[in-house]
Amino acid sequence: MKFLSYSACVLPLLASVLAIPAFPGAEGFGAQSLGARGGTASVYVVTNLNDSGSGSFRDAVSQSHRVVVFAVGGLITISSRIVVSPNVYIAGQTAPGQGITVYGNGISYSAAHNTITRFIRFRMGTTGDSGKDAITIANGHDMIFDHVSVSWGRDETFSINGDVSNITISDSIIAQGLETHSCGGLMQSTGGVSIFRTLYIDNQTRNPKVKGINEFTNNVVYNWGGGGGYIAGDSAGPSEANILNNVFLSGPSTSQHPFTRGNANFHTFVSNNYYDPDQDGTLNGFILGESTDNYSDVDFQDTQYPYPPVNTLLSPTDAFNHVRDHAGASLVRDHVDTYLIQTEMLSFGKKGALITDPTLAPINGPGPISGGTAPTDTDHDGIPDAYESAHGTNPNVADSTNIASNGYTNIENYVNSLVPAV
Ligand SMILES: *[C@@H]1O[C@H](CO)[C@@H](O)[C@H](O)[C@H]1NC(C)=O
Ligand SMILES: *[C@@H]1O[C@H](CO)[C@@H](O)[C@H](O)[C@H]1NC(C)=O
Ligand SMILES: CC(=O)N[C@H]1CO[C@H](CO)[C@@H](O)[C@@H]1O
Ligand SMILES: CC(=O)N[C@H]1CO[C@H](CO)[C@@H](O)[C@@H]1O
Questions:
Q1: CA 299 to CA 241: how far, in whole Å?
Q2: Which atom of ligand 1 is nearest to the CA of 54?
Q3: Domains, the chain, ordered by start
Q4: Tens digits of per-residue pLDDT, 195-219?
Q5: Which of 214, 227, 195, 236 is nearest to 323 (CA)?
Q6: Residue 157 C-alpha to ligand 3 middle, in angstroms?
Q7: What amino acid positions are annotated as catalytic residues?
Q8: Ligand 3 atom with the shortest distance to the CA of 203
Q9: pLDDT < 70 regions, the chain
Q10: Beta strands in 202-342 (DSSP E)
Q11: How many CA atoms lie within 13 A of 404 on its CB side?
């Protein structure tokens, strides 16, 4: 019994001293995002698909220190933009059926420090505010976006621009910025941004446009338009970027090299980037040689910047296969992501479309998204009875915010168990 009382008093200390990642497998600059930890955490169960009000997603993310779980799946159509509070873990992987798509306008993560966002789709569309992004971050630190599908931005699709640091975007899809702007997005920050195993597809330009501290590893960029693929700074401000083991695959809209607009302020370590320019229906490219012909007029570095690395560095072709199988809200893919990957990306250059209105064929809008049925959760603490019984917590007592021996709350252990660690 002496041991028990000892561990009971020591564990909370250990948990605060030993930094645990945002979730098992979290990597990159945003890996230490706390989510709902670091305050009195609560669980918010989203129980309807309403735009606002009790039980809605908008209400769920309006307060800090919440783990947001979903007892419904489907399409949440929003009129005005949603603003996410700091210290929120949005666990889209908990939604039954085909998961959650937020459609109709964009979402702001400005000042949403310490957020974790996983397995959810944000599709803005033509009804969204003119001149706004699907996802915007204008300031803030420590955020991780993992398996997020974002599309149809009216300005940019996923845009970081300002006093922003310690961000990771992993295993995501950034797609189909709407004409006439049609942008993947700016990745312009004062601090670090990591982009890992993410697909940029069907954007006229800025796939992405990078400035500041950035690591771009194991990504796939498909069918960039005439505005450019990876835009290297194009700025008087300094950049220090690693660009490793990515795949650049030209599509029908692609008319220029993957890298453009570099200048002497863009300091970069490049390695093992694969380029397939011929749009011939097979993956038969080559590794880009380190020359300004291929990377534009950047300042090449001999050594890699010591940024937080990926846990496993994949070869470009393995990265391509990983993105094919896992990128985006891939627990259950919707028809949009399936179309983008299966029909367009896997045409290896033959298919890809300019779009101004995603409600028209072949996309035909964001839905339907099947709703499914949530498992029984008697105590409404966010963890289903079956999981509680199997893991020794009480299905009749709301105990999901208690801290388990590994430093995570019970609710985090549950939501993290639903998806594989990278
Ligand atoms: C959700 O919206 C429906 C339809 O407008 C409404 O009947 C219902 O009361 C709303 N639910 C809540 C909890 O506000
Ligand atoms: C970013 O993370 C690093 C390493 O954890 C930390 O030293 C730095 O203070 C963070 N920056 C901000 C603005 O929080
Ligand atoms: C898809 C889109 O909305 N617009 C641009 C992005 O890239 C495409 C390729 O699909 C370009 O042709 C478009 O201009
Ligand atoms: C030195 C080198 O690898 N140059 C390559 C640059 O990219 C072009 C195509 O854009 C290749 O043909 C070159 O071999």
A1: 10
A2: 13
A3: 77-347 (2.160.20.10)
A4: 999 998 876 778 788 889 999 999 9
A5: 195
A6: 12
A7: 206
A8: 6
A9: 1-18, 179-183, 203, 234, 354, 422
A10: 209-217, 220-222, 230-232, 239-244, 247-249, 259-260, 266-271, 274-276, 286-287, 299-300
A11: 15
